[in-house]
Design goal:
Oligomer: single chain
Radius of gyration: 42 Å
Distance between the termini: 169 Å
Order of helices and strands: HHHHEEEHEHEHHHHHHHHHHH
Strand content: 5-15%
Shape: extended
Length: about 525
């Protein structure tokens, strides 16, 4: 029995040993696989980390690439700014041509004193280190550029179209201005005449403008620039009848009256002299005094112009139409916060002129649409027929009404003007361009226009268009400050402002002498 038990224990021991021996490779295999998996996990983690690092590096490199590309694009700009700042000055000038050109162009839309202020603000914002010229320098440059345009040699075109007008301010002085453009260079039909297409042929100040004075100017300008084919003016006798000095055998000069002036004159004849219009304007003036300091101030009538009133009658009619709208609609949004009794008390009188206002409004609409057509189509031999068709297509007309009579006058005027042209010729029937030039000059003068014309008038050509550095360089080379002062002395002389200052200086001396004697 003991032997059997011992044998059994030995067999069990051998089995256990064999089982342990058989399990050892499995454990080793499992350990190897675990190690391999751990190594793979670590490799994956390292790869992810490397990928993240590469992505960060790529982003950084892309950002640097964008910066380099932007720097390459901005390089011309920075180079342009740098060259602008270090540009060599012109002869006898501290500043270069581009700085001077910038100042002259800025002065077209702002005062001379504002130009250096604006430049300083821009330079400080952009961190640009550059000197800024004074306002006196900007004014002198503008004058010299203007005088150079008056003196420059021009081609003697055979189809010159002159636009002539004179302007006056306080005192006896008037300035005769002549703008010119070859008829072959007029804008195409459908486009308006812009100021940059015109040239200033003459600026002549004077105290009296009789026919002989105008003839002398016409003769001098024709010798310098060539005889015109067309002369457009506002209908003034001294401008229209003196064109005879320009005519030569076989070469006549066509005189064309401005359409807007003609329309205003006919409107004055049909409406302005009527009792209804006179009483309406008188009542409007009284109403203006009554409401301009009240809560009704925003409904104040427009002020009546003492000069060229019928050239600017549209604001009067527009105001009258507004008041009729307010009176017709008790719930009008424009007067919702006002007392209706108060409104009727101050503006109720306008209702009496309802029919007349409607008629005046149709006349103004007729003039405005006709003028728009003239300013975009120009003038040809068949323009009378074409504008008649244009007006007929817009609405039906009653020949007996005021607007119907005005329409017939305007169409007849265009027909007669067009008959003066040859077949194939095209001209202009509006002098609004020269009125715009005068308006720009008065904005430049600002409050100084109350002191009459000064030497600043010679800068008028610089207002017409943008200038290039090449043009400015040539202008300053051709005209010096001495030339500019000489022109002012010969053409302007003693101004109203200088004579006023001299008078007050005499008063101060007299007062001082009297006090010293006492």
């Amino acid at each position: 029995m003991k032997l059997l038990t011992k044998d059994r224990q030995q067999r069990n021991s051998r089995r256990t040993t064999n089982a342990q021996k058989s399990r050892t490779p499995i454990r080793r295999k499992r350990t190897t696989e675990v190690k391999r998996l751990d190594e793979q996990s670590e490799a994956i983690a390292r790869s992810r980390q490397e990928n993240q690092q590469l992505n960060l590096e790529n982003q950084s490199l892309r950002a640097q690439l964008r910066q380099f590309q932007q720097a390459d694009q901005d390089q011309p700009v920075f180079a342009g700014v740098q060259s602008f700042c270090i540009e060599r000055g012109l002869v006898n000038h501290k500043f270069g041509a581009r700085m001077i050109t910038l100042c002259v162009n800025l002065a077209r839309s702002m005062s001379f004193r504002s130009v250096p202020v604006a430049l300083r603000q821009v330079f400080e914002a952009l961190e640009i280190t550059a000197s800024v010229p004074s306002h006196d320098s900007v004014e002198h440059w503008s004058k010299r550029v203007g005088l150079a345009q008056l003196k420059k040699t021009r081609n003697c075109h055979k189809d010159w179209l002159w636009i002539v007008d004179h302007s006056n301010q306080i005192g006896q002085e008037k300035v005769l201005v002549i703008l010119g453009i070859p008829a072959s260079k007029l804008p195409a039909p459908g486009k308006t005449l812009s100021l940059d297409e015109l040239e200033v042929l003459a600026i002549v100040p004077g105290k009296s403008w009789k026919r002989d004075d105008v003839r002398n100017v016409y003769r001098q300008v024709a010798l310098h620039s060539g005889t015109p084919r067309f002369v457009v003016c506002d209908g003034a006798v001294e401008l229209r009848e003196t064109v005879d000095v320009l005519e030569k055998p076989g070469q006549n000069v066509v005189v064309l009256r401005d359409f807007k002036h003609f329309a205003a004159n006919r409107f004055e004849k049909l409406v302005g002299k009527s009792e209804a219009f006179k009483t309406f304007c008188a009542a409007m003036g009284r109403t203006r005094c009554q409401v301009q300091q009240t809560e009704l101030a925003y409904l104040t009538p427009p002020s009546l112009k003492t000069k060229a009133r019928f050239m600017n009658v549209q604001p009067i009619v527009r105001w009258a139409r507004l008041i009729l709208m307010v009176l017709d609609d008790p719930h009008c949004e424009a007067t919702a916060d006002l007392d209706r009794n108060r409104v009727n008390e101050k503006f109720g009188w306008v209702e009496v002129y309802r029919d007349e206002i409607e008629s005046w409004g149709r006349c103004c609409d007729l003039i405005e649409s006709s003028l728009r057509w003239i300013n975009t189509q120009g003038l040809k031999r068949d323009s009378g027929k074409r504008i008649d068709e244009f007006l007929s297509a817009s609405r039906s007309w009653n020949a007996r009404s005021t607007e119907g009579q005005l329409r017939e006058m305007l169409v007849q005027f265009v027909c007669e003007s067009g008959k003066q042209l040859r077949h194939g010729e095209r001209a202009w029937l509006s002098s609004e361009a020269i009125e715009s030039v005068f308006g720009r000059y008065k904005c430049r003068e600002a409050q100084h226009s109350r002191s009459g014309f000064t030497g600043l008038i010679v800068s008028l050509p610089s207002l017409l268009r943008q200038w290039t550095p090449t043009e400015v360089r040539r202008s300053l080379a051709d005209v010096s400050n001495k030339d500019m002062r000489q022109w002012t002395k010969e053409n302007i002389g003693s101004t109203v402002a200088s004579r006023r200052a001299k008078a007050y200086q005499t008063l101060r001396k007299t007062t001082y002498n009297e006090q010293a004697t006492a």
